[in-house]
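Quarterly update, task 2.4: zinc ion-bound model.
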Amino acid sequence: MNYKAICLISICTAAFNVNASDIEVCGELKQGELAILKNIPAEVETFSIGERIYPITEDGYAIVAFHRDEKNNLKLSANLADGSKQEYSLNIDPAKWDIQRINGVPQQKVTPDSSHDEEILREQKEVRQALQNMKQGDFWRQGFIIPVEGRISGNFGNQRIFNGTPKNPHTGTDIAAPEGTPVKAAADGIIILNGHNYFYSGNTVIIDHGQGLQTIYAHLKKANVQQGDIVRQGDVIGFVGKTGRATGPHLHWGASLNNVRFRPHSLLDINNKTCQILKGK
Ligand SMILES: [Zn+2]
């Protein structure tokens, strides 16, 4: 529930229940979603979930994302300047993931023989390195736009079955659009990967938006940027294609925070999410 709304209705009686360690969390506490932490006490230096460290912007915001398969009872730690920790419990709701059957994929893209090992390893290594970035900056604060308008042809998190063979769950959202449609940067950022001709993702661009948040654009016909470029929201970074493992032209739009893939459409209302108070223990 929105804490400010409670304040207006009940003349802030809820405020008596707020103490110094409480923080505000905005967004669905659900598998595959992104949430923003606000009103963070000054003595908090970083947050952590397990081994992952989440920094705080200079003006006091942090973002966290929940795995597709996140467990219900998640511990969020606020790491204080004096070395102590404040613990928060997050009850993560389960999401319902569809099963998507995709047929007509070239069989060598489903069960590749060992002659493709090297190129698959190159793709995995380059993408992994890009997603481990933790750059300064908070470009994400401006909000996000959809990079391409079109029909959603594959949801984030789908359990996918290619030519009858179960493969990994879908790490992004597929948006169908004609080949050559311009793909826009969803927000300002820095191009941290301009990957060519990957076995699965085809031509792939990754933009870093600061604080470990990246957006991923795959199966491009062609990129329109170079690694290291600074892009503004709406800039054309490439064109829709069907390179890599794709049965037709579409944009595979992905999002990653601190190496956790989440539903990219969760970015579109990043500054308008419903908030609730999180009580420290
Ligand atoms: Zn996809």
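Highlight for this quarter: The mean pLDDT is 91.
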